[in-house]
Amino acid sequence: MKCSNLSPVNGQKAVFATRVDETSRFHVVIVDDDEHDLYVLRRAVEQSGEFVCVGAYLSADEALAEIPKARPHVVLMDIRMAGMDGQESTRRLKVILAQVKVIIVTGLLDVETMNKSLRAGADGYLTKPVGGAQFLAMLKLTVRDAARFKSKSCETRISSGGEVDSPKAGSLLTVRENQVMALLSKGLLSKEIPDQLGISLSAVHKHQLNCYRKLGAHNRTEALNNWREE
C-alpha cells in the first residue's frame, strides 16, 4: 500500500496509504520490519521535498508482492527481517524490476555483509542510525549514478576502424572512487584508507561498494583487476 501521514505505525503488516504526489520525480519504497525505523525513514523521505514515499512494508514477502505495482525508482531495504531477509528480497526484486535501485539500510557494517548485498544486486549501503543529511545524500547519489549510467550506456564512439566502441565501466567511477581504488591497489586495507583521504570508514565502504558495482566485480581482487584494465 502507499504511504500515509507521518504518524507512527501500529499495524502488523504495514502499511500506509495516502495521496501520492505524482509530480515528484523520484518515488521511494521502504522495507523494514522495525516500525520505528520504518517511520523515521518514511518521515525523512516525505520531508525531503525531492522524493515521495509510495510504499512502506514491514515484511519482504509483502514488499515483493506490492513493489511491482508501485514501480518506485528507489527501494530502501533492511537486511535483518523476520522471514525472508533483505538480501534475498533484493535478489528477487532485481529479477522482477531490473532497473529499480536498492539501497541497503542496516546496522551491520562488515565487508562480508556488504559483499553479499552487492552480489544480491544492491546499489547503495547505509548504516543505522541514519542521519538526515547522509540519507538524502545517498538517495541523490543513487539516482544520479543511475541517470549517469543510463546516459553513458547510450553513448557510443566510432573508432578509426569504423567500429562502434561502448564506454568502459571504469570511466563511470567518481574521483573519490578512483582514489579509493588507487589506495586499494597499493595494498592498503579498507580501515587504513580513512586516514589517507580524510573520510569515515563508512564512506570508504560505500565507495568500495559503488566501485564493485560499476566495475562488475564481486570482490576486491576482481575490482582491482577490472580497474587496472580500464
Name the strands of the widest sheet in spatial order.
Answer: 2-1-3-4-5
Provide the number of structural domains.
2
N-C termini distance: 44 Å
Q: Globular, elongated, flat, extended or rod-shaped: what is the shape?
A: globular
Number of helices: 9
User: Compute the gyration radius: what is it?
Assistant: 18 Å
Instruction: Please estimate the helix content.
Output: 40-55%
Any guess at the CATH architecture of the largest domain?
A: 3-Layer(aba) Sandwich
Helices and strands, in N-to-C order?
A: EHEHEHEHEHEEHHHH
CATH class label of the largest domain: Alpha Beta
Largest sheet: 5 strands, parallel
Structural class from helices and strands?
A: alpha/beta
- The low-confidence parts are 4-22, 148-171
**CATH homologous superfamily placement of the largest domain:** Response regulator
In percent terms, what proportion of residues is strand? 5-15%
Average pLDDT for all residues: 77
Number of strands: 7
CATH topology call of the largest domain? Rossmann fold
